[in-house]
Amino acid sequence: MEPAHNVSEFVLLGLTQNQESEQICFVLFSLFYAVTVVGNLLIIITIKSSKSLISPMYFFLSYLSFVDICYSTVIAPKLIGDFLVERKTISFAACMTQLFFGHFLGGTEMFLLTVMAYDRYIAICKPLHYMTIMTGRVCGWMVLGSWTGGFLHSIVQTLLTTQLPFCGPNEIDHYLCDVQPLLKLACTDTYVIGLMVVANTGMLSLTCFVVLVTSYFVILVSLRRRTTEGRLKALSTCASHITVVVLYFGPCIFMYLRPSITFPEDKTVCVFYTVFTPMLNPLIYTLRNEEVKNAMRKMWIQKVDLDDK
């Protein structure tokens, strides 16, 4: 039996209802999105064109940057466009599409960050076996596994939501289509589905976070036996990953590891992992990484030399 969808479109209440704030937000979020796309594209181009950035860490980083561009593109353009209109609407199909790709790419990012932590663990704790363990084939399968995990996570979330009957209220108190706000609009008891959402997204976020924290704890313990120079280099690399992990997983755990209730702070917290984290990733990884900065300098010098000729 098909669910009753009398609602053909949803009205998004947006990030703010203040017109002056919306104009400021339009400029700011347009800038954030441009920085996100340019920054992540620059990382991808640098890694692909540099002969020195060939380790698995940079292979994973290029895919993380690609996911960040896609993830930001699913959320940001709609959000930015809505700052310019009074009535912010989204069709039922577009809403479910945004929900699917948001969770697909968000889930893929979680798995990629976990894979990157495993890569750092092998590089620092088992350096002699690193190249035999982290082969190109293994890295390829890990990336494929991350995409597959993200897809399976998202398809569950989307199917759970599309099977709900939406027959009346259509105002979403958010700037995007997500499971929690949509559950509030369904014309049925959503308690069980709310628990399934927590079990799916919430436990996925928490499990990945625990694995990440454990791996970094093991890395930090193993660093005690290193020289000061080796310790500082390893800590510098790990610090970048830990910063990204905290910025991404902290808000996700806050949002999804709880029953299907919403808080006024949800929209602000959501901005962290949908807008800020994709934008900050390139900055965090380049500012703390001499190899990436050197590769970018070389690429820039080569471009200037070619232009002069």
General description of the model:
By secondary structure, the protein is mainly alpha-helical. It is 74% helix and 3% strand. The protein has ten helices and three strands. It has a three-stranded mixed beta sheet. Helix 8 packs antiparallel against helix 9 (266-287). It starts with 8 loop residues before the first strand and ends with a helix. 38% of the residues are buried. It comes from Alligator sinensis (Chinese alligator). Belongs to the G-protein coupled receptor 1 family. This is Olfactory receptor. Residues 39-285 form the G-protein coupled receptors family 1 profile domain.
The secondary-structure element order is: EHHEHHHEHHHHH
- Cα-atom radius of gyration: 21 Å
Supply the CATH class: Mainly Alpha
The name CATH uses for the topology is Rhopdopsin 7-helix transmembrane proteins
Helix content: over 70%
Q: Identify the overall geometry.
A: globular
Number of strands: 3
In whole angstroms, the N-to-C terminal distance is: 69 Å
| SS field, number of helical segments | 10
* Proportion of strand residues: under 5%
Arrangement of strands in the largest sheet = 2-1-3
This entry's quaternary arrangement is single chain
Q: Return the domain count.
A: 1
CATH architecture: Up-down Bundle
Family: Belongs to the G-protein coupled receptor 1 family.
Main location: membrane
Domain G-protein coupled receptors family 1 profile: 39-285
InterPro entries: GPCR_Rhodpsn (IPR000276), GPCR_Rhodpsn_7TM (IPR017452), Olfact_rcpt (IPR000725), Olfactory_Receptors (IPR050427)
